[in-house]
Amino acid sequence: MPVLSLLSNLHKSGIVHYGISPDTMLIGRDGKLRISGFSIPEARFERTQIPAEVFDGYTPLEQYGYDLESGEWSDVYAFCATVYRALVGSVPQDAVSRATNDKLIIPARYAEIIPVYVINALMNGLQVDPIERTKDIETLREELSATPSNVVSSYSGIKVPSGVLRFRQRRKKTLPFMLQRMMILRDRQFLKPSLLFSAWVLLLLQVGLFTIR
Questions:
Q1: Are 8 and 20 within one domain?
Q2: Single pTM value for the model
Q3: How far apart are CA 157 and CA 137, in angstroms?
Q4: Which domain holds residue 160?
Q5: pLDDT tens track for 97-117
């Protein structure tokens, strides 16, 4: 895929697009896919000093202003979301909603015809938690092409069920992601400020940062 080669070269030069979506990926008259919409990084992140342009359904969680690391893997998420849109025909559930109530699925009629290795690649690239996500474009390219050097993931050998295929998140949530999930619940008024401290203590107990004697 030439577009993946372009993204890989950009990343090697220290440039992350942060705005990949159907609005910024264009097909020219020659049939070639091109990427447009380059901008300064601050314009792609919420809660900065300038108005942000994000693409709900394609923008990863770390660009919504939560304290999570961003980088090449942010473009991986956006590219996989765009591929999902092309394959399934619907806009993916936005990352903020997925962080608290993930409903992203591949309907059965598509899951039965999409190659398993492509489903694997999309599941790995669309992990909401950036720590659990495919880290770079070259790894994504290998997974999408099903080359022998593919990185083995927890989704390898997945069997497509007769019903819908859900994009389940990894069971072991990382601490940064769990903390930001609490902030999302608070922002959406699902978690009252008076309960925030209690939730924080329970979280620390769960991850084993301290114990009660």
A1: yes
A2: 0.75
A3: 22
A4: 2-170
A5: 999 899 998 988 999 899 999
